[in-house]
């Protein structure tokens, strides 16, 4: 019988630690993770590397559920990590959950 494997959730910060329309960076050896907060208080997490030229998405501009890379203005969908047309590429996304005002990531 196969048992479902639980994701190891890691508390990274409080929601209020992430500015509205901003981000916070979680540093890790396998590549930093950018945690974004939209105006609607939704939280997303992507690898902090644009799929175009590896620009730091955490330094981009958040609008709606999109972040614009600061290097070449690629627009990346926060929910999927997909670049918006006409650009093509994808930033790795990470599962994120918010409980009692705290943000948790599944990094494995």
From TrEMBL:
It comes from the Bacteria. PROSITE patterns: RIESKE. SUPFAM superfamilies: ISP domain. Keywords: 2Fe-2S, Iron, Iron-sulfur, Metal-binding, Nitrate assimilation, Oxidoreductase. Coiled coil: none annotated. Residues 10-105 form the Rieske domain. The keyword Ubl conjugation does not apply. The keyword Oxidoreductase applies. Pfam families: Rieske_2. NCBIfam families: nirD_assim_sml. This is Nitrite reductase small subunit NirD. The lineage of its organism: Bacteria, Pseudomonadati, Pseudomonadota, Betaproteobacteria, Neisseriales.
